Here is the input.
Amino acid sequence: MHRKMTRRNFLSNAAWSGSSLIILSNSRSAYTAQANEKLNVAAIGIGGRGAADVNGVADENIVALCDVDHSHAAKTFERFPKAKQFKDFRKMLDKMHSKIDAVVIGTPDHTHAPPGVMAMKMGKHCYCEKPLTHSVYEARMMAQVARENGLVTQMGTQIHAGDNYRRVVELVRMGAIGEVRDVHVWLGANFAGPPKPTNMSQRDVPTDRPAVPETLDWDIWLGPAAYRPYHSEYAPFKWRYWWNFANGQLGDFFCHYCDLAFWALKLRHPVTVEAEGPVHAESAANWTIARQQYAARGDLPAVTLTWYNGGGYPALVKEKNIPQWGSAVLFIGSEGMLISDYNKHQLLPEEKFADFAPPDQFIPNSIGHHREWIEACKTAGPTTCNFDYSGALTEAALLCNVALRTGRRIIWDAENLKAIGCPEADAFIRREYRNGWKL
Here is the structure.
């Protein structure tokens, strides 16, 4: 019989025992695992990005590996020959739950929440790729289940662990550019002209019927998504550009770039969201401009965040002689501006900040995004992209597409997950699962 642990009784027991313990509510005993003991990790979705996530935790005990296509995942299976192999994560968790401490999820977006929620309800710590989920409702559920079970979680926004983001957050927080009321975030800007369409979006579903590869379990790959016959236009690589499986370029990158604004400005839930761009019933938009309004937060003023992907960029980039970085986050403050991408940042105007001395660092550098999660699982320490933080970030990202697909300005009731006066948004906030699937 296992006693469920909270952070409070963890700290209490750690104090009298003189050792660090693992929080494990329904698996191995939390009272016998030492901080230097390796976690037993299971990974779900181990090809592509998932393979990189497995590599990030490879120093732990990889006890089970799951992928719907054993050919696509062959290299990862070969690397860990002692790990049990599965195609269906449900069977893996049912059979192996007593031997698993934590799970890593690197599947396509539409199959993030089902294994994540199932594993966390079993008391497993969880690392999940971004965006955290396919729908707003799923993001809220992932955060709620993690919180209710006292689990250590991390979303795979690896750039969050970089030194550059930390230095930008410090500059914004210490007031280097004054009060920030406006943020512009753009991805892949085409400064030479208007947005350019891509051949990965705005397409009808394919009508031909190629055979399902022998190594692929197509039914499990589909998971809770509405049924579609197999096609290589979906799997293994192009699922990103279909609403049924993902949220397009915005879903792919909003959580990476807008993470910086969320962190620096302590954002959480927008109060309004509106979006423009081409709308197609099946395939994601090839360009989007979305505007979000955030209310004042304590001493911090209200903020407008504008997102551009697919070639758009804010007109003020040229008007104010701002560096034309292909992708960037631009903070506009009362005393100046700050532009950043993944690896560099710059205070503007340059002449004003020529003699500026940056503050002493007060946000510690990360030990590594995956390592941070692993160590927190063992010590009950914090992670910086836990599902409470990253769930809200994901909700904000996905609400842009809700606004786009409804063609309406969303007035957002975050507490009740409702677009006020817009019932047509409900189907996009919480989509219907295919028969046989539930959270």
The chain has two domains: 7-158+371-384, 161-199+245-366+394-429. The chain is about 30% helix and 15% strand. The first helix runs from residue 7 to 17.
